[in-house]
What does this fold into?
Amino acid sequence: MKAIGIDLGTTNSLVAVVEDGRARALPDEHGRVILPSAVAYADDGGSVVGYGARDVAAERPHDTLLSVKRLMGRTKAEAEAEGLSTFSLVQDGPVLKIEAGGGQHTPIEISARILEALRDRARAALGEQISRAVITVPAYFDDTQRQATRQAGRLAGLDVMRLLNEPTAAALAYGLDKQKQGRFAVFDLGGGTFDISILELVEGVFEVLSTGGDTRLGGDDFDTAVATALLREAGVEPEAASAGLRRRAVSAAEALKIALTDHFEARFTLVLDDGQSFDRPLSRDQYETLIRPVLERVAGPCKRALADAELRPDELDGVVLVGGSTRSPFVQRFVAELFDRQPLCDIDPDQVVALGAASQADLLSVDSELRLLDGGDVLLLDVTPLSLGLETMGGLVEKIIPRNSPIPASRAQEFTTFQDGQTGMDIHVVQGERELVADCRSLARFRLTGIPPRPAGAARIRVTFQVDADGILRVQAREESTGVEQNIEVRPSHGLTDAQVEEMLQASLDHAEEDVMARFLRSAQVEAERVLMPLRKAMQVDASLLSEDESRIIAHAIGQLEEAMGGSDHRAIQDLTEMLDKVSAGFAQRRMERALQSGLKDVAVDDLEDELADAPVGGGAHD
Ligand code: ADP
Ligand code: MG
It folds into this structure.
């Protein structure tokens, strides 16, 4: 079964697939590969997607939903504060809805309609059932926005194999991953948004070094600027023009822009409200003068993105053009000047993201065509750049998913309680290669409560780490006898640059020896505490079972061990722990016998419970 790649765009969406070793965009029944990201709702609840919807947008502006991608994973308050939409928004609990066609629709549902249309197109074009897909998202999308996109895919009956960053998809379409390494800028100027991303390729995996852009800048702004200027020239004040005239002027400006992409001169023609027609030729130079102020707004975000990645333009290995607006020779020349090099633009900039998504979808399939062509050694799987683990007693790290594990990855490990009667356990999720928690990066914490009070080491708590294909980590802790569980989701790569990963790896090498010593010491201390703590308590509670001599010997051994624990000699601690175990063995034996006689299997659990609720993960009974 084929897997498809989908570019779910703000203005336009596409679907592509790899066939005969090549990615190609799939056309609709009229041969058009682009599907406008528009959904029009009728009062009877029916809906139309694509060109049919976009064409009625002017007549039915409130029922035709455009640019819904801007609202994915957002609340009404956010959307209004950022001026993201002109539609009528309703906040229903945690869910944002948009009113159209007499009903209310969530951005996820609306996006699902677009995805369904693309899925149906792929089914028709390929003549087979299609359900597996890679969907692209902007590199700056946060977890909520990504989850919303994934849900839209699911709602459209798709099995979303992976969400892929749009700039990464474009880089894949150009085959930039075939190089050993490199740094690339991906310049994406669409209809209403501008995104710039700096990527670094390391061992076949693209990392996003920085992103930037302007969510209110795109090709549509060229059209508005030109329409405004030319209306004025025609003697109409743009503010005073009728809505219909303004719309016609913007369409005429877009037609002019597209014509000037292939010709040095083109005509702007517009029928005014009084029936007169305004018609004038425009050269590329004249056009460029009109749009220059808009075009120049891309410069700031590009410079900032480079600065954030700590790169100069000449340190880049390539610049990739994405988005319909980068077809314009003006835009191409401006980018060339800005980055001081000729950008890559051989692949259709409308299609490049979808084509890259299709390649990725193919590579993620068992029967991948591209992998076969490549001799099977394409290294496209994402990996965890750093180990993921848990804090255990003594501030030590237990690594659950080691670094460089291919994702998706899943591992479980069993832990137990450290203290008698312990009813809670702190789960502290950390990232890094170092042995001590203090030297790693803290990702998240949560607490598992409701563990039934039992002697230390009796409870079984299974902790599962799962990293999905998008790099999202889910940690679940579950007490096996009662089934009580808690979980948390984090994105381990969030806010982490490549340089920081590199630094963390280097630090683990630099400190390898002292880290091992620190681990030995902490482990010995934890082990000692495990023996000491119940013994101190027992000496108070069961003093009657001790002879005076015995009491003195044990107290002396405790004193020696406590002193050693303050030092750094882990062997001394181990030896003294063993010694203490030996001298208190008789006492332990008598306590056990007495407990059995009185029918109490668990030792004085009630007394202990209240003060013992706060320990982190205890020992590691591994599997
Ligand atoms: P998005 O990523 O926002 O979905 P696209 O990448 O499809 O958008 O780009 C749409 C923009 O590209 C529109 O502003 C459109 O006018 C512009 N565009 C399309 N074709 C051309 C062309 N030949 N020359 C210049 N601009 C174009
Ligand atoms: Mg796009």
User: Anything to note?
Assistant: The pocket of magnesium ion (ligand 2) is lined by residues 9, 190, 323, 353 (CB under 6 Å).
